[in-house]
Amino acid sequence: MKMSKLRADAQALLFLLPFLAVYGLFTIWPMIKGVEMTFYKWTLIKKMKYVGWDNYQRMFNDPEVWAAIWHSTIFVILTTPTMIVLAISLALIANRQSRLQKLYRSVFFLPSVLSVAVASYLGLFVFQPYNGFVNSLLHLLQLLPANSELFWLTEENLSWIALTLITLWWTVGFNFILYLSAMQDIPDEVKEAARLDGATDWVLFWKITLPHLSPITKTITMLQIISSFKVFLQIYIITGGGPLDKTRPIIQLIYQTGFRKNDLGYAATMSYMLFVILLVLSALQYWINNRKGANA
Amino acid sequence: MKWVYRIVALIAAIVFIAPLVWMIVVSIKEEGMKIVTLVDWFTPPYSFAVYDQILSGTKLTNWILNSFFVAFCVTILTVAFAAMAGFVMSKLPFRYKSFMFFLVLAGLLIPGEAIIIPLYQVAKDMSLLNSYQGLIIPVLASPVAVIVLKSFFDGVPNDLLESVQIDGGGTWRIFTQIMLPLNRPALASMAILTFIGSWNNFLWPFLSVTNDSLFTLPMGIPTLMSSYSEDYVKPMVVNTIASIPIILLFIIFERQIVKGVSLSGIKG
């Protein structure tokens, strides 16, 4: 394109300006500002006093911080593999020829459009003891004795199960669609040829479908790990981080430290720890994706 | 084998839809009825009295409108800003281009959640707390959208752009009359994902807004729910009312939404 260099630069800048202004002011600048905050005692009202590395020292010796990071990690461990298996299974269901094919697709994706608050509160009531949906269903089917109740939301292990099930139900739709469209990319001739060679559905799945899904699985896995690590609202609404903070994730701790305990400096320090963790995970994702590119 | 598949498929579909059906059924149940088994939720007496109560007695509809308004503004502006930036980075020569690219790529690694505390301080310094501007402006820069759109713009042949330029078209014309129309599916995909993201954005509104007239749904709902202890009907009415508009949108735009989501998987 022919233009004087200066004019070209000016024009480019004009196009970039809206994005750059917002990006600079509300992403880059807070990142820099955050470093400053970690070195101060800093309340919701104002900057109090310089404390050096105190916040960092305190963080590394704070069992609550490590517990919260562990809870976020548990959530990652529980949701990631189950998410992949469920998303692939649902895609297999919706990919089969059937009159209900379209209906299945809509039904599996529908929960994904609900507001996170709606999904969480629905989950909260679905897993309520006595009259909640799950317990009354179990009673009705006689799977749970009439005089006993499962306390999904107040018993540590059960709350993890409930949180996982609710999250899967609410968010599997996106990954389901990604898998479904990847499955539909497999050329029919490939499947036909395999069938002519006598391959059963089972063999077809393991030898053709699954290998074809492996690149998208890598991407989904990493994205799921990162987003599960950032979990907050579902847990905040459903268990409140309880029982006894046993399900409290790191973001909830950051929020409580900053806004309930009025200690923004310390909360910012924890945010930086979270940042480093997510940075490592993202770098890992980048590395895995690029390695995949190199193989292809 | 075919029957096994059919039964599994049907069970899966029922499991997915059941909580929503239950939500609606409970929401029209008359309040204060004795519930002994699951079946009792589904039987009459039904009543819409609570709907009236919630629609007229709370700010729920106000919050639904806020959610739509914020999501709408955020979607339009985010995609517009990202498209402009992506276009420049794809098709225009300028100094510091590789630095720009690096800067945007770095943004992919910065999670919003990790800078939320200093962002609060920055927004406070700029008097953006408790305002629509404060809900909207800080979230408008999406490095992901820039990168994805840039990669789509890269696919438009340069010859095409040059032929327009020979015809005397300026850069703005190239952008609005060639780049945008040619990449409509990619733009739609970004718009849909941005809309859903904003619809569910909780942390930032939660921290930046305390005035309940400015609440969006993710914050309004918990506020409302905390006052309904031990009650099933009111919370389910709130859930149902809050979900109706977005479910209707989903039914109308299902094809586009599904396409948009699957497109994001290709380049994202």
UniProtKB/TrEMBL annotation, chain A:
InterPro entries: ABC_transporter_permease (IPR051393), MetI-like (IPR000515), MetI-like_sf (IPR035906). Gene3D superfamilies: MetI-like. It holds the Pfam family BPD_transp_1. Its main location: membrane. It is found in: Cell membrane. It is a multi-pass membrane protein. It comes from the Bacteria. One of its GO terms (cellular component) is plasma membrane. Belongs to the binding-protein-dependent transport system permease family. This is Sugar ABC transporter permease. It comes from Cohnella xylanilytica.
From TrEMBL, chain B:
PROSITE patterns: ABC_TM1. The keyword Ion transport does not apply. It comes from the Bacteria. This is Carbohydrate ABC transporter permease. Belongs to the binding-protein-dependent transport system permease family. One of its GO terms (cellular component) is plasma membrane. Keywords: Cell membrane, Membrane, Transmembrane, Transmembrane helix, Transport. It is found in: Cell membrane. The keyword Cell membrane applies. It comes from Cohnella xylanilytica. Pfam families: BPD_transp_1. One of its GO terms (biological process) is transmembrane transport. It is a multi-pass membrane protein. The chain crosses the membrane at residues 7-28, 63-87, 99-120, 132-153, 186-207, 232-253. InterPro entries: MetI-like, MetI-like_sf. Residues 64-253 form the ABC transmembrane type-1 domain.
